[in-house]
């Protein structure tokens, strides 16, 4: 078994050990002949993982607002990706259609969303943030989505100043907003997003520690289950 295959299989075992109740392999996969004892003994630690709650995400947003003001920015903008997930719990695939969250230094955030995605957006916002009445500015296929961003900022008294872009925001989006709101200066939001994400809370450290322990246990089980002469096609043996 090569190193890459070993790590892949161990990673799979780690995921199952965290997610499945009882034994990590309480039922053998259909094609498997048996499950090695070290892997069969892996126990679920799912109950130890306390999910990130809406209140904690609100604390993250408050920290973002503080850093936005400290860095002399008027607002920041996020699109689908890890930062949006960190602040809101929203999973959003990137496409050519703009879905964005704008967080002003003062005031409530708002979202810009394709009209046909309205229901999905509101559902995810409610699940991640606990907000059942978010401000979602919709745009139709024949409308300019960047104008919605400019309008949302204007309604919050932001006509000039600095709008920070999260580092993964596509150029076509930031360029479109720059044209829709030419009085705004487009700058980097990294001091805000990185400033929040690099400092871990006690809860985040607890989750990271748990994930590390589960992963190391799975690596150990996979190592103890390895034997000389095993091939990379692990299902042929397991």
Protein topology:
Blueprint: H1 3-19, H2 37-40, H3 54-70, E1 75-79, H4 82-88, E2 100-104, E3 110-114, H5 118-129, E4 136-139, H6 145-155, E5 161-165, H7 171-180, E6 184-188, H8 190-197, H9 202-224
Parallel strand pairs: 1-5, 3-4, 5-6
Antiparallel strand pairs: 1-2, 2-3
Characterize the structure shown.
- This protein is α/β, with parallel strands linked by helices and 238 residues long.
- It has two domains: 3-50 and 202-236, no CATH class; 74-188, Creatine Amidinohydrolase, Chain A, domain 1 (3-Layer(aba) Sandwich).
- The chain contains nine helices and six strands, in the order αααβαββαβαβαβαα.
- It has helices at 3-19, 37-40, 54-70, 82-88, 118-129, 145-155, 171-180, 190-197, 202-224; strands at 75-79, 100-104, 110-114, 136-139, 161-165, 184-188.
- A six-stranded mixed sheet has the order 4-3-2-1-5-6, sandwiched between helices.
- Helix 1 (3-19) packs across helix 9.
**CATH homology-level superfamily of the largest domain:** Creatinase/prolidase N-terminal domain
What's the CATH architecture of the largest domain?
3-Layer(aba) Sandwich
How much of the sequence lies in strands comes to: 5-15%
Number of strands: 6
Secondary-structure content class: alpha/beta
Strand order of the main beta sheet, please?
4-3-2-1-5-6
The number of domains: 2
Largest sheet: 6 strands, mixed
Fraction of residues in helix:
40-55%
What is the H/E string?
HHHEHEEHEHEHEHH
Which spans of ≥5 residues are poorly predicted at pLDDT below 50?
A: 21-26
């Amino acid at each position: 078994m090569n190193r890459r295959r070993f790590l892949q299989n161990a990673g799979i075992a780690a995921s199952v050990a965290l997610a499945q109740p009882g034994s990590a392999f309480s039922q053998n996969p259909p094609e498997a002949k048996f499950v090695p004892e070290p892997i069969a003994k892996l126990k679920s630690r799912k109950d130890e993982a306390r999910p990130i709650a809406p209140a904690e995400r609100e604390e993250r947003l408050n920290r973002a607002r503080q850093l936005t003001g400290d860095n002399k920015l008027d607002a920041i903008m996020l699109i689908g990706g890890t930062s949006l997930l960190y602040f809101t719990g929203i999973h959003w695939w990137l496409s050519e259609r703009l879905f964005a969250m704008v967080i002003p230094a003062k005031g409530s955030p708002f979202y810009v969303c394709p009209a046909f995605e309205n229901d999905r957006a509101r559902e995810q916002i409610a699940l991640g943030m606990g907000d059942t009445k978010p401000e979602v500015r919709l745009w139709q296929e024949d409308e300019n989505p960047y104008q919605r961003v400019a309008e949302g900022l204007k309604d919050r008294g932001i006509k000039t100043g600095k709008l920070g872009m999260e580092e993964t925001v596509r150029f076509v989006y930031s360029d479109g907003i720059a044209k829709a709101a030419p009085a705004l200066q487009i700058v980097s939001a990294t001091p805000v997003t990185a400033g929040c994400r690099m400092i871990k809370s006690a809860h985040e450290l607890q989750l990271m520690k748990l994930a590390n322990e589960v992963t190391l246990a799975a690596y150990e089980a996979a190592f103890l289950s390895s034997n000389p002469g095993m091939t990379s096609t692990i299902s042929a043996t397991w």
